[in-house]
Amino acid sequence: MLLSSTELSEQLSRLNGWDVVEGELQKTYRLETFPEAIQFVHLVADLAESLDHHPNILIEYRNVTLTVSTHDEGGITEKDIMLAKGCEELV
């Protein structure tokens, strides 16, 4: 089920640096080195597999941008919040 705008605002207030961009949750992580960025992506991949919910990932040198939404629902759901929270715990 899609989050209401109130629910989404409440959740975003608890997620450091995550924003809504074109109807999806998005954050860019800036790692110290390229190898650290790749290691982070591997950790995100493991997390995503465990949740069976996968983000779009853009790697630009040390910057890793994660974009997530629940396509089946047509927007942002609790699944997306869970993935975002899990990613925050990885760094």
Q: Could you explain the architecture of this structure?
A:
- Keywords: Lyase.
- One of its GO terms (biological process) is tetrahydrobiopterin biosynthetic process.
- InterPro entries: PCD_sf, Pterin_deHydtase.
- Its EC number is 4.2.1.96.
- This is Putative pterin-4-alpha-carbinolamine dehydratase.
- The chain is of the alpha+beta class.
- It has one domain: 2-Layer Sandwich (Gyrase A, domain 2), CATH 3.30.1360.
- 44% of the residues lie in helices and 23% in strands.
- It contains three helices and four strands; from the N terminus they run H-E-E-H-E-E-H.
- It has helices at residues 5-13, 34-51, 78-90; strands at residues 19-21, 24-30, 56-60, 63-68.
- Strands 1-2-4-3 form a four-stranded antiparallel sheet, covered by helices on one side.
- Strand 3 (56-60) and strand 4 (63-68) form a beta hairpin.
- Helix 2 packs antiparallel against helix 3.
- The protein starts with a helix and ends with a helix.
Give the overall shape. Answer: globular
CATH homologous superfamily annotation: Transcriptional coactivator/pterin dehydratase
Derived from helix and strand composition plus strand pairing, the structural class reads: alpha+beta
Q: Any low-confidence stretches, pLDDT <50, length ≥5?
A: none
The CATH class: Alpha Beta
Overall tally of structural domains: 1
Number of helices: 3
The percent of residues in helical segments reads 40-55%
N- and C-termini, Cα separation: 28 Å
Series of secondary-structure elements, N-terminal to C-terminal: HEEHEEH
Protein name: Putative pterin-4-alpha-carbinolamine dehydratase
Catalytic activity: (4aS,6R)-4a-hydroxy-L-erythro-5,6,7,8-tetrahydrobiopterin = (6R)-L-erythro-6,7-dihydrobiopterin + H2O
Organism: Exiguobacterium chiriqhucha RW-2
GO molecular function: 4-alpha-hydroxytetrahydrobiopterin dehydratase activity
